[in-house]
């Protein structure tokens, strides 16, 4: 934006920062003479007329306040954050490359809204809009679907412009006349919009501010765009053209216009579609190489077939995870890309157990569906709000609305705490069964209740080594509990608002949390401050998941998008749009290539992470999907919903022969097969229990959990 540039250059010159001024000038390809001529202040004097000349300060202050509204300006590879301390004085802080600038989540309200300063005649708004509507409805079929995407963002901006300029009756009649034309998936947003009828209402409304600050993205073919541009220029319809230029980001692609189905599949999020650029970055979606150690064979496993037993041991593991072979997965991140905790002896033992279990794993498929074991929480008057099950399926935890966390043992082995310090000092540390001796038999019970939160517990997660448990709550904290002593070790405070979800990394040590403050945070158990803050969502972060290689984190949000973040540098590397409601469940396929997402719209969408494309849509559920899980070898996807059903889908078939050529990636022409019914392998009803959690055991038995609701 030229005006902003001029103001920044002027500031640099006044502060005697000649070098920075030169660099910015070269970057912006602006010469001194060009700038001298730029008449920017209200009196018409050029801001950069002479080096020491004092420009009209009122105009300058106005400009600087606009500059501060533009949060960051990129200079070469570095970003400069512009923050204004007093009118007309602004401090420019240079930030080293690679470090993002965290922008406060409340933009400067007045700066944001001032963009709505009236330019047109309020009485003509309806005419402008209906003129455009008539033009689009009469255009050729191939362009109509693409241009229809304009209706919603234009409707919102024109309405807000009328409200901001206090033309309340015109705004009301504009809303009543045209809100029925909008797509059904915008109903919730329109409900919020209809409550904004006065300028004062706009000040604190987050949805409104998001809409104002983030440009709404439309993906349109070049032909359709030219058609629109020509129409608006011929009609001299400046009001609409100004909105298009100021508030919309039109991502133009060369090629055939997209069909209504292709567009409908991708739109629906709070800020339109993702720009194509957003999904171009390389993602290392492969799995890390497992450390090698021998699996000792048990006598019972051998059954006299020693020679056959050995390859049999290794084989199932190889198929299941793909990268267990000696070769490094070509798509895997470098082994040391992010520091991961060392394996302890107990972890190695657990891995060995895991491999033994895997050898007895059932190979699932359309012909061989898993058995499902459902854990129903009865009389859960405390209100069950979260569930997790340990990887070895030995413990189950429930988070409740009465702020308690309850841990049950699902095996005959009871839960025991470690003895007190005085008793521990009496134990012979050299004995073989020292780990057994430190446990206090008197504390053995099937259930332990953990007290500490002061609000409903919305997320729970066991650490992979089963020594720790995470819980996050409405009270804004994430707590780490010891499963040796059943006490709280740490309360992590970073979110100021409810925390909706938390999850441990598959390697332990790191964990992620996401909440109402619209950001996800990455933590390490031994740091009380977050290591990374992932900011970018326009509404609550409702669910969080680690990629199996722990280098990436997926977050689902109430802004109806899913984002994939790089743990190494905090960058957002994928934005997936297509859901029509807030997202409540995420699951990565075991091979790390695909992501499944479920939302309040009752659809499960499947994404190819490498290409950044939607590759499938599973329809069948009639209510919010709260649980998604792939079987251990990735052949089956299970989904659990508020409609009281668990459904099983054929994941192998869903992901085979995908069309992921470069053309599709470049233009977003995705052709989703209408094959939900062929992929659905089974639907299992509960009597009256919404499904909150799903888990495949190491042998591929499916465990489901939920609280019985007596409607």
TrEMBL record:
GO terms for cellular component: transcription factor TFIID complex
Region (Disordered): 295-347
Keywords of this entry: Nucleus, Repeat, Transcription, Transcription regulation, WD repeat
Chief location bin: nucleus
SUPFAM superfamilies reported for this sequence: Taf5 N-terminal domain-like (SSF160897), WD40 repeat-like (SSF50978)
Comp. bias intervals (Basic and acidic residues): 318-329
UniProt-recorded Gene Ontology molecular function terms: RNA polymerase II general transcription initiation factor activity
Sequence ranges of the WD repeats: 377-418, 450-485, 492-523, 534-575, 576-609, 618-650
Domain (TFIID subunit TAF5 NTD2) ranges: 120-248
Pfam family, one: TFIID_NTD2
Protein purpose: The TFIID basal transcription factor complex plays a major role in the initiation of RNA polymerase II (Pol II)-dependent transcription. TFIID recognizes and binds promoters with or without a TATA box via its subunit TBP, a TATA-box-binding protein, and promotes assembly of the pre-initiation complex (PIC). The TFIID complex consists of TBP and TBP-associated factors (TAFs), including TAF1, TAF2, TAF3, TAF4, TAF5, TAF6, TAF7, TAF8, TAF9, TAF10, TAF11, TAF12 and TAF13. The TFIID complex structure can be divided into 3 modules TFIID-A, TFIID-B, and TFIID-C.
Similarity remark: Belongs to the WD repeat TAF5 family.
Assembly and binders: Homodimer. Component of the TFIID basal transcription factor complex, composed of TATA-box-binding protein TBP, and a number of TBP-associated factors (TAFs), including TAF1, TAF2, TAF3, TAF4, TAF5, TAF6, TAF7, TAF8, TAF9, TAF10, TAF11, TAF12 and TAF13. The TFIID complex structure can be divided into 3 modules TFIID-A, TFIID-B, and TFIID-C. TAF5 forms the TFIID-A module together with TAF3 and TBP, and in TFIID-B with TAF8. Component of the TFTC-HAT complex, at least composed of TAF5L, TAF6L, TADA3L, SUPT3H/SPT3, TAF2, TAF4, TAF5, GCN5L2/GCN5, TAF10 and TRRAP.
Protein name listed in UniProt: Transcription initiation factor TFIID subunit 5
Protein encoded by which gene: Taf5
